[in-house]
Amino acid sequence: MATKKKSDNGAAATAAPTRKAAGGNGAAASSDAIRGDVEFRKELLRSMLFQRRFEERCAEAYALGKIGGFCHLYIGQEAVSTGTLSVLRPDDYVITTYRDHGQALARGMSAKAVMAELFGRQDGVSGGKGGSMHLFSKEHNFLGGHGIVGGHVPIATGVGFAIKYRGGDQVIVCFMGESVVNTGAFHEALNMAGLWKLPVVYIIENNRYGMGTSLERASAIHDIYERGAAYNMPRAQCDGQDVFEVRKAVTEAVERARTEKLPTLLEIRTYRFMGHSMSDAVSGTYRTKAELEEHMRRDPIVLLRSSMHEAGEIDDAYVAKLDEELKKEVQDAWDFADQSPEPPLEALYQDVLVDTTSDEHATASA
Ligand SMILES: Cc1ncc(C[n+]2csc(CCOP(=O)(O)OP(=O)(O)O)c2C)c(N)n1
Ligand SMILES: [Mg+2]
Q1: Over 50: is that where the pLDDT of 26 sits?
Q2: H/E segment holding residue 34
């Protein structure tokens, strides 16, 4: 079990809790294993609420000019990151898009180092040279943070190939938005994974929009998990606002990948509460305020908190204290980022090419 994990720079991070997933050989996991005990559910709540509080401050930092470039918030989708990453082992791999803050935090990466990256500072997870869209951590097998829509999907397939080739039992989870399913790279990559039976869990976070274009205006089919049929790939769809539904679907897919070396295409239906990026209006252009408000009634954090409240597992005082702790942790991350220096000019020439013939590289990849 891991709840509060130590991170890169020794600071406590609020990672998604982990529990051994139930069910081997593709057997469906039991409801008890999915829901865990009260302490586990509290950790799920903590993980989601931490992402929310962190990103609320990101919006503030962006408005103040402390964060530059692009910045895509994940608010509303936190049950997907927490639910998914609570199923993985530390030696599994994760790869994602530019909407990556929540997943990095749920994976246990240091909030301080993530915030420093957003601020473009030297102590950031990518040395301050990547920014919001390019969070990486070798320690956490977190392979980015990618800005090109669909560009990371073939990389995930390659990692799946490498795992199988080396005889490992890890899996790779590849998060993507629903617009990715209309790119060529998606089809090439999923075909290979289906053909070669690779341990990859492809997760489509279907938040209904690609920038300002709705799924219905962009895709010939709307149950997009069905695209897996073209690649003979196991596939499923689940509710992304319910963290337990996410855990259940991901547990089955991960077990299938780990024990049977089979890929899965999972469509997780969610909704983003903010604009596409910080430069986009929240509503009033491509979606109505009424639509947004309807979806906000299914806020994943409120759903979990209310169910625990009703079961008598937490009370208002518990939530208030938790919130206070998390806000302080985010403030500490902000302060850390703010005092971190900008990368020196020489950093421009560092980490540009890897000398794959060097001894250091040979040892690292052995
Ligand atoms: C190849 C490519 N084309 C266009 C863009 C511009 N772009 C950035 S995000 C985005 C929409 C992606 O939507 P989706 O995959 O649904 O992810 P979401 O933003 O909803 O998480 C587009 C078109 C890009 N980054 N890469
Ligand atoms: Mg989308």
Answers
A1: no
A2: helix 31-35
Domain count along the chain = 1
Ligand 1 neighbours, Cβ below 6 Å, are 99, 147-149, 177-180, 207, 209-211, 276
Domain of 220: which CATH number?
3.40.50.970
> pLDDT band at 100, cuts 50/70/90?
very high
- DSSP 3-state assignment of 187? helix
- Under 8 Å between Cβ of 36 and 18: no
- Domain residues for the domain of 114 are 2-365
Beta-carbon-side half-sphere exposure of residue 175 (alpha carbons within 13 Å) = 34
CA–CA distances in Å: residue 175 to residues 9, 169, 192, 299, 303: 26, 20, 18, 20, 23
Please give, one letter per residue, the 3-state secondary structure of 159-171.
HHHHHHHCCCCCC
pLDDT in tens, 274-298: 999 998 889 889 999 999 999 999 9
The 3-state DSSP class for residue 86 equals coil
Instruction: Decide the pairing of beta strands 142-146 and 172-177.
Output: unpaired
Indicate which residue's Cα is closest to atom 11 of ligand 1: 210
- Pairwise CA distance, residues 39 & 50, whole Å: 16
Q: For ligand 1, atom 6, name the residue with the nearest CA.
A: 149
Compute the 3-state secondary structure of the chain and give helix, strand, coil in percent, each to the nearest 5: 45, 15, 40
Angle at 328 between CA 327 and CA 330, to 5 degrees: 65
Give 181-218 pLDDT, tens digit per residue. Answer: 999 999 999 999 999 999 999 999 999 999 999 999 99
Q: Are 177 and 240 in contact (CB under 8 A)?
A: no
Smallest CA-to-CA distance from 72 within 133, 125, 114 is with: 133
Q: How many CB atoms lie within 10 A of CB 100?
A: 29
**Is residue 216 packed enough to be buried (19+ CB in 10 Å), middle (13-18) or exposed (0-12)?**
exposed
CA of 277 to the centre of ligand 1 (A): 11
Phi, psi of 3 (to 5 degrees): -115, -80
DSSP label at 22? P
Q: Show Cβ contacts of residue 196 under 8 Å, excluding neighbours closer than 6 positions.
A: 161, 164
Is residue 40 within 8 Å of 87, Cβ to Cβ? no
For atom 12 of ligand 1, which residue has the closest CA? Answer: 210
